[in-house]
Amino acid sequence: MVGLFLAITARPAASFATGKQVELASVELVESTGTIASCDDDGVLDTGERARVRVTLRNSGAERLERTSMTLSSGDTNLSFPEGQKVSFPASDPLQTVTAELAVKLSGPATPHDLALNIAYRDEEQSEPGDKTHTVVYRVNTDALPGTSILEKVDAPFPAWTVTASPASTPPWTRLADSTTGNGYFHGPDHKETGDLALVSPPLQVSQTEAFRVIFQQRYDFETNPSGIPYDGAIIELSEDDGLSWVDIGASVNPTYNVTLDASRSNPLRGRRAYGGQSLSYPAFTKATVSLGTTYAGKTVRIRFRIGTDDSTGATGWDLDDLQLEGVVNKPFATLVAHRGMCINRAPVADAGPAQTVNERRQVTLSGSGTDPEGGVLTYEWKQTTGTPVTLSDASVPKPTFVAPEVTGDTDLQFELRVRDGVNTSVPSVTTVRVLDVSAGNRVPTVQAEPVLNVTEGDTVTLVATGADADGDALSYEWKQVGTPAVTLEGAKAAQATFMAPTVKEPLELTFQVVASDGLDVSAPFTVTVKVNNRKPVAHVEPVPKVDEGTKVTLKGSATQVDEGDTLVYAWTQVGGPTATLSDSASATPSFTAPLVDADTELTFQLIVSLGGVASEPVTVKVLVRNVPDEPPVARAGGDQRISEGSGVTLDGSKSSDPQGAPLRDYAWTQVDGPTVTLMPAGPRAMFNAPEVDGETALTFQLQVTDIQGLSSTDTVTVYVIDKVAPPDTGSGFGCAAGQDGGMPTTVLLLLAALGFTPRRPRRRSP
Fold this sequence. Notes:
Blueprint: E1 2-3, E2 5-6, E3 9-10, E4 22-31, E5 50-59, E6 68-73, E7 79-80, E8 86-88, E9 97-106, E10 113-123, E11 132-140, E12 142-149, E13 151-152, E14 162-166, E15 174-177, E16 184-190, E17 195-200, E18 204-205, E19 212-221, E20 233-239, E21 247-248, E22 253-254, E23 259-260, E24 273-274, E25 286-293, E26 300-309, E27 315-326, E28 333-338, E29 349-351, E30 356-359, E31 363-365, E32 369-371, E33 379-386, E34 401-403, E35 411-420, E36 429-436, E37 446-449, E38 452-456, E39 460-468, E40 476-482, E41 496-500, E42 508-517, E43 526-533, E44 538-541, E45 547-548, E46 552-554, E47 557-560, E48 568-576, E49 591-593, E50 601-611, E51 614-615, E52 619-626, E53 641-644, E54 648-652, E55 664-673, E56 680-682, E57 685-689, E58 697-707, E59 712-722, H1 746-754
Parallel strand pairs: 2-15, 30-36, 38-43, 45-52, 53-59
Antiparallel strand pairs: 1-14, 3-4, 4-5, 5-9, 6-8, 6-10, 7-9, 10-11, 12-28, 13-27, 14-17, 15-16, 16-27, 17-26, 18-26, 19-25, 19-27, 20-21, 20-26, 22-25, 23-24, 29-32, 31-34, 33-35, 35-36, 37-39, 39-41, 40-42, 42-43, 44-47, 46-49, 48-50, 50-51, 50-52, 54-57, 55-58, 56-57, 58-59
């Protein structure tokens, strides 16, 4: 049998839902037993004590919870929260439980009362927003006096009952407390696995003359199948031989057993009469009485309440409260009284100090100490347990001394320290002193230091030597610089020497040596190299305002914490956004053309500045490139022309342009009217020969230009081809010569054309 597991808990019913949901699984008030935060380790919160409220929540939804928290509060002004009132829970997956704790402390008068603690819990993303709340009640400022009562009210934190469970891994009977009243009761679970659980009373000394009775309150809920056949159940048994054998006393109980357990199941109580199904008026408690008369007069007995379960499903189980004995001569149960303030005196702790290694004939000091949880005054007791005996200067002080004995070989001496606070004695603490045989003569000391130091110009550099002497002799030290440039060493005759790192243009190495002396011999020198580096520059970049796509942008970098004349190395890289080509990534002020973007887009550039191989931390600048809505290009086919037939004509669209200033991608000339000619395109231009015409004839051409975005526009130009007409052979009467073919003179034709007349060419006649 083992002691009853004592947990003051609240057990709300579990539920499950869709979405994000969280439910309360349990609440425990955990006393800080074994520490000075607890006065008497009795499982009850008393004035002056600290405890921890341990809350377990269940993810009862269908999604992961990551923002779960709880807040504690109380209307009792004497309850405080040393760690605050709110705490977060770990993330949880569906059906998973998570636990968090907060400390509470009770102050004020040590008066017994019921303390209500409010728990508000939530997940910030739960389907139903807002806090869920639960209140638990704890009885505080009480002490349990064992062996003072024949009434077991199950309110004492440590009842005198024991429990058994088979298999041993099966959760046993426990003591629970009603979360709203604080009233305690025994709970035996009805498991879904095969199990045998028992709650066993302390020894009961039955009267020689009086009738023996046990009166108790009970309620039960055990598994049955849908047809009502009982699978799980409970019985009451008695033992006269301190638990070696048991007899069923159900026939002496009123009300007695109400079912016969199914015999085909794996229940250890299968086929027996037992309590099964649900008790009358469940979940209310009802009275039961065990009447044994004088059958066990003068005997010492135990009674156990036993539950048997099969491997099917489970149910709630069996609850017991207010167990009243009659006809017994002992008082096995505890009575609750007001807190008496009788705190446990906790044992002090001894510390014998670190192990030591010394030379023979040297004085040794033991470094003992002790602590007492209550802060009591301690006394000390040293004792040598092994090795060549020595005489301590005072075995009752923390740090006694002795002279290491002469030894013929290295020898260990062991000492033990105990401390006392007037009530309790600590467990012993042990330390070892190794005494070295140094009869072979003086041993040369050794010295070492950090072999390589990396420092920055202007730093104060500390050189630290550590020496060792096998004979335990005191050591002196001497530092010196080897090489140049010379620096001023301070403390060159000590274990620690310092100097100021010089200003450098490039990394520089300084070399130092140190030796240790025991007064007789000097150690071999130890060399230390100090690498002096340039100060790390601090890079800066100027912010860049918003720019339009296609425009030129200049980045401006600089550095501080550098000296005048220092050669800085700039390294620009693009680390975000569409690629832009920098004019010179090693320049302090590189430039680039903002790329064309479909929407406002951010480019990110990084600058690192180096000085003498020491690089700055990277800094970045962001450039927001704005998308400029694209307008179509403007086609300009040139002005209309008048050309004589047979002449060469050039169409010129070079005045076409893109409003964004970007180059045009394509020029396309087409003829849309007039006698067909053969166009010879040449970029923005096109050429053709004017055809022969019978009279002035209009030829219309269209130019379509397209930009790099694929947008286009058109323009037209008209070329008027003029018929070459020869003047007639006779006089014209206008004082000018006529053409050879009898037509009008050219001058007249041009004049008529300017006036809007188009003379018809006379038909040539056959000879």
